[in-house]
UniProtKB/TrEMBL annotation:
One term of GO molecular function: NAD binding
SMART domains referenced in this protein's UniProt entry, alphabetically: UDPG_MGDP_dh_C
Domain of life: Bacteria
Keyword Mitochondrion: no
Residues annotated for substrate binding in this entry: 155-158, 210, 255-259, 263, 327
Assigned EC number: 1.1.1.22
PANTHER family linked to this entry: UDP-GLUCOSE 6-DEHYDROGENASE TUAD
Organism listed in the record: Parabacteroides acidifaciens
Record-given protein name: UDP-glucose 6-dehydrogenase
Reactions it catalyzes: UDP-alpha-D-glucose + 2 NAD(+) + H2O = UDP-alpha-D-glucuronate + 2 NADH + 3 H(+)
Biological function: Catalyzes the conversion of UDP-glucose into UDP-glucuronate, one of the precursors of teichuronic acid.
The keyword ATP-binding is assigned to this record: no
Binding-site positions, NAD(+): 30, 35, 86, 121, 158, 269, 334
Family statement: Belongs to the UDP-glucose/GDP-mannose dehydrogenase family.
């Protein structure tokens, strides 16, 4: 089977690579020439565990190709996945210009039956616009070539995307013809052999499923952050509450961790887009609006704690951040709480030192040299008045507190992810503060 994937961002690259791993002939297309050249040479544009070796292996096997020219592969493919960006507009709505451009290119140049599958996260109803764009181009050409549109949202977690793709909880596919259904069923057959379900539905439901799933996960996080903040006020411990709640099988114990707010490329964008879809349709998404508001506040919570501990006097204080990416195992800093915290610390006159195992270059690219970049986690705490744990990378989990105590000039630790043992830290005479416990 021959397929094309348009967009070699996070989703497109993982999707294309994993299909080629299953024996499909995949052409990945991107307009960015430098990126395509780098990929042809096996150089990754993103950090994602396991991806580089899979790309190299499948390129060598001749199953995975990279090109800037979508048109050149349209005559050999039966399925085109569109995985281009849908950046949020000012008002939170998803900008569909790249998605529709792919549709127009397909319509202008296709000469055989093709299913155009949208993988990008797009508002409900987008498939209709994609279909109309293709029809318009075919009309201009004065030809009638059968085609289908479909929706196949992705549920990949950054840092575990390859694993998620190869062993998904489920694959959701929205189709409106038997032919498209058969083609996509065949394409995903290797996953069915593994026993994972592929769930077919109508296209609008598939588009909505993605937003509903992400909004639900974001809701769990904001809910727990709200509970955590109340726990601090009333003298409860959110970690105990989480265990007590999560043991109820109806609730489950995953995605219940209070922290310094969710970030990344999906939750913030999808929550905003869902609110916007509601507004556009005259319906207020009240729960989701609150989810977003709670998250915005939560991103400042670590700063608020440190500011309070220093009595509002942060000028000249040396504050260290461990972790910059929005979560471990990625260098992605989109909507990362670290950016909000750094900004607030600098505005308050603090000197900020940072260390992250992989996101330092990304941080430099975003904010430049306004903070001091340290070569390891221990160098970062030298002379620090306080240490803030922002991203729970594994290497931060069991540090040598004795060593840290010798290196720091102060003794304040704020744990934005609740990973440390309070007793252990207090034995070393640290002042330890975390989320959801006084
Ligand atoms: C998410 C969805 O999980 C995935 O299915 C979707 O396709 C894309 O969006 P991702 O953005 O990679 O994936 O990250 P995820 O692991 O879900 O975490 C998102 C954010 O929530 C992170 O900032 C993380 O720190 C935070 N989080 C997660 C919490 O604060 N508490 C939790 O219990 C879980």
């Amino acid at each position: 089977m021959n397929i094309a994937i348009v967009g070699t961002g996070y989703v497109g690259l993982v999707t294309g690579t994993c299909f080629s791993e299953m024996g499909v002939d995949v052409t990945c297309v991107d307009i960015n020439e430098a990126k395509i050249k780098a990929l042809q040479a096996g150089v990754m544009p993103i950090y994602e565990p396991g991806l580089e070796s899979l790309v190299q292996k499948n390129v060598q096997a001749g199953r995975l190709h990279f090109t800037t020219d979508l048109v050149s592969c349209l005559d050999k493919v039966s399925v085109v996945f569109s995985a281009v960006g849908t950046p949020p507009d000012e008002d939170g709505s998803a900008d569909l210009k790249y998605v529709l451009e792919v549709a127009r290119t397909v319509g202008r140049h296709m000469n055989r039956y093709i299913v155009l599958v949208t993988k990008s996260t797009v508002p409900v109803g987008t498939a209709g616009k994609v279909k109309a764009a293709i029809c318009e181009e075919l009309d201009k050409r004065g030809v009638q070539i059968p085609f289908d549109v479909a929706s196949n949202p992705e549920f990949l977690k950054e840092g575990a995307a390859v694993k998620d793709f190869l062993a998904p909880d489920r694959v959701v596919v929205g189709v409106e013809s038997e032919e498209a259904r058969k083609l996509l069923e065949r394409l995903y057959r290797p996953f069915l052999l593994n026993g994972y379900p592929i769930i077919f539905m109508d296209i609008r439901s598939a588009e909505m499923t993605k937003y509903a799933a992400n909004a639900m996960l974001a809701t769990r996080i904001s809910f727990m952050n709200d509970i955590a903040n109340l726990c601090e006020i009333v003298g409860a411990d959110v970690e105990s509450v989480r265990k007590g709640m999560g043991s109820d099988s109806r609730i489950g114990n995953r995605f219940l961790y209070a922290g310094c707010g969710y970030g990344g490329s999906c939750f913030p964008k999808d929550v905003k887009a869902l609110i916007h879809t509601g507004k556009e349709n005259g319906y207020n998404m009240r729960v989701i609006e609150a989810v977003e508001e709670v998250n915005e506040n939560q991103k400042s919570i670590v700063f608020d704690k440190i500011n309070k501990l220093f009595g509002g006097e942060l000028k000249g204080k040396i504050i260290t951040l461990w972790g910059l990416s929005f979560k471990p195992e990625t260098d992605d800093m989109r909507e990362a709480p670290a950016l909000v915290i750094i900004d607030k610390l600098l505005k308050a006159g603090a000197i900020v030192k940072v260390y992250d195992p992989v996101a330092m270059d990304e941080c430099k690219r975003r904010i430049g040299s306004v903070v001091e970049y340290c070569k390891d986690m221990y160098e970062a705490v030298i002379d620090a008045d306080a240490l803030l744990l922002i991203t729970e990378w594994k290497q931060f989990r069991l540090p040598s507190w004795k060593c840290i105590k010798r290196l720091m000039r102060g003794n304040v630790i704020v744990d934005g992810r609740n990973i440390y043992d309070a007793k252990e830290l207090e034995e070393e005479y640290f002042v330890y503060s975390r989320i959801g416990k006084k």
